[in-house]
Amino acid sequence: MTVAVVGAGIIGLAVAWRLRERGIDVTVLDSGEPGAWHVAAGMLAPAGESAFEQSALTRLLEESNDRWPAFAAELGVDVGFDDAGTLGLALTADDLADAARVWTRQKLPLLRPSELREREPALSPRVRAGVHAPAERQVDPRKVVAALRERLAGRIVVKRVESLSEVDAETVVVAAGCGTAALTGLPVRPVKGQVLRLRGEPGLLRHVLAATVDGRHVYLVPRADGEIVVGATQEERTDATVTAGGVHDLLHAALELVPGLAELELTETTVGHRPGTPDNAPLLGRLDDDSRVIVAAGHHRNGVLLTPITADLIAGLAAGFQDPLLEHFRPGRF
Ligand code: GLY
């Protein structure tokens, strides 16, 4: 069987890798422009990032989170340092009320500010309350993509696909992020996110911080090498402009949370577009029942987290196995 994967983002590459492991002849076609993975911080937060209570999506997120350590080990990348986990944080009483809805769902006990500062001494005294989610991790998506590209050496072709009729393969997997809409007619919309990268001496932070700060959601993802990723705006916009307001809002929230960040170098300001869908759950499965086209797109805020399970389910589907989990994520459900 021949399979062409359209899109060499983190999802497309992971699907192609799993297909190759099954001995399938796979080619990845890509325009060469980096996608959302290049901007993504790589937080692996199955509860904190899903706005809706959708039981099938929650299960998918949790199962994928469970698969990340083995997936990362196979690729030789790490998932956070010291298994520190994530701290969910709130600054004001309103922030606490907002965050508590998610924390209650996670069944995590509330920690006092002193307990939080024992874990992260750099936290501001303004932090009012928080929780520790030990099973949440992080990964550097740029390292994951580099490792996947290595494993697919010779299989990636730089080619902008304008129409699926140009693609000569028995099965075509469309993993083209926001570009999936133009190729398939499916309702995938771009959701702009501005993300900053700071750099300083390693050791200022150990945990991923996911916080509500004066009504604004912000996350800080520290890497062992001293990089700290600060994200993200969420804007229903298609432009790729880094705005003064976006950078201000992110830095303001980050510094309110961890004042010591003011000393770090601001090394990158970036913009990406999350591929959103009407219910913000991914599109996974055949375009039509008898179609040669399989879709793996629309992962919205959870593309990195959902990479391992998407790769397993979609490679399995291409090989002829329809996992019952896919039923909830049919591309044609709208
Ligand atoms: N998962 C983080 C974001 O989409 O901003």
UniProtKB/TrEMBL annotation:
Gene: thiO
Pathway: Cofactor biosynthesis; thiamine diphosphate biosynthesis
Source organism of this protein record: Paractinoplanes globisporus
Enzyme class: oxidoreductase
Name this polypeptide is given: glycine oxidase
Entry-linked Pfam families: DAO
Gene3D superfamilies (UniProt xref): D-Amino Acid Oxidase, subunit A, domain 2, FAD/NAD(P)-binding domain
Reaction it catalyzes: glycine + O2 + H2O = glyoxylate + H2O2 + NH4(+)
Single GO MF descriptor: glycine oxidase activity
UniProt domain FAD dependent oxidoreductase: residue ranges: 3-316
Enzyme Commission identifier(s): 1.4.3.19
InterPro entries per record: FAD-dep_OxRdtase, FAD/NAD-bd_sf, Gly_oxidase_ThiO
TM segment ranges: none
UniProt keyword annotations, A-Z: Oxidoreductase, Thiamine biosynthesis
